[in-house]
Structure formats: C-alpha cells, structure tokens
Amino acid sequence: MRSKQAQAREVQVGVAQDLRVNAAELAHQRGVLVVVDNTFLSPVLQKPLALGADFVVHSTTKYLNGHSDAVGGVVVCKDGELGAQLHRIQNSAGAIMGPFDAYLVLRGIRTLALRMAAHEEGGRAVASFLAQHPRVVRVYYPGLASHPQHQLACHQQRGFGAMVAFDVGSLENARTVCNALKLFTLAESLGGVESLVSHPATMTHASVPKEEREKLGITDGLLRLSVGVEDPEDLLADLDRALAAL
C-alpha cells in the first residue's frame, strides 16, 4: 500500500488536532490519507472516522484494555479496499496479537464506557486543582476553559479524557514531586485503572535533544499524569501533599 499519509498523534499532552478542517479536508484535497492516533481518548470520547479520518490507530494496551495487563494495537478503517490491503500486510508480516492478550482487551472493552467516565471525572478534578495551585507554573488539559484549544475540543470530542500535564518549573521540583507522591505510581504507561506519573524529559523523551523537546513544550519541569479511577479526593490530597514538599 503506497500512499501519502498525514498523521495526528499525541506528541504534546493536552494538544488537540483539528481533524475536520486542518487535517482531513486539507489532506484529502491533496490526495493524502489521514491517520489518527486516538489512544488518549478512546472511541468513547472521540470518533475520528466520523470526522474524516481514513485510519484510526489505538494502543489497545491502554484504555481499551484498561488494566495494564495486555499488549496490543489495532488499526481501524471504514474503506473496504484499504482494509483488505491492511489485512494482506498483516497476514504477510505476521502481526498477530497473542490470544490471551486479545481476550483481555475484549474483556476490558466491556467496561470501557464506565471507566472513561470515571477517568474523566478524575482528570477534570485534578486539572482544576493544579490550575489553581501556586506552585504550578502551567497546566495542559483541554477540558480547562483557559486552554487555547478548549473550544476545538468541545467541538469534536465528547469529553476531555484523563491525561493531564503540568509544569513545576524545574527538574529538581519535578523530582521532588515524583518522590513525594504515594497514590500516583512512577511509570511511563497510561490508560489503566491506576493513576500514574511520568517525567517525559527523563523518561519517554530522554533520547530527544533538549532543544527539540522544549519546542514541543516538554520542559525539565513537566510532569504527565494518567489519572486513574481512584476517588478524586484521594488523588487531590496526594498531589497537595506532594506539592507542599516544594
């Protein structure tokens, strides 16, 4: 399958992509296929195919599975011919998910809508709390009215998810917060029922040159949260205690 592709991916936490106009329509005018990574929102909160995307990809390891105990991915399209081409490539390459992983993902999907509602409740609460905290420099979450793409997110999404990023000003401060957190586990993954914290500059983006990652907004003081389904009050208390250590 040879074609030009335009990809919309979650490079920056809390940055929405305008799929209907800036991506899909402009790309299709130039004969370019649009591929959207919808992992952060899941099909519950955003449906890229309905917005004009040609392909949607998900890491099923994340929200679709929801329990951090399976590894897999999925590519979805609505065009039968493109789907047949993908199937031939998959068959030739042997890109087949393990049967037990597939079972765990299918089981997880049964509770996806319920989990996403709980995730978002926690995400909103955490983002609002951090936005008002004096030790936090900046918060990235499109569910906040102050976010520059809030209206765009309202237009094309059914919710804002549970991925929240915030900047505490320095590498030293970021380490202090991570070490003080108790309910948020330090890990690179996301989308499970448990809440996680990561430091992108030294974890997910450790191999990216500092100048390049800072252009993406990934500073030394940036922390990324994957908010789980725990009681929001417990999560806020944990964050409050950790920030008090600064």
TrEMBL record:
| PROSITE patterns linked | CYS_MET_METAB_PP
Please list the cofactors this protein needs.
pyridoxal 5'-phosphate
Supply the alphabetized keyword list.
Pyridoxal phosphate, Transferase
Which GO BP terms apply?
cysteine biosynthetic process via cystathionine; transsulfuration
Cellular component GO terms, alphabetically? cytoplasm
Tell me the Pfam families matching this sequence: Cys_Met_Meta_PP
Task: Note the superkingdom of the native organism.
Answer: Bacteria
Q: Which GO terms describe its molecular function?
A: cystathionine gamma-lyase activity; cystathionine gamma-synthase activity; pyridoxal phosphate binding
Q: Which family does it belong to?
A: Belongs to the trans-sulfuration enzymes family.
Name of the protein this chain belongs to: PLP-dependent transferase
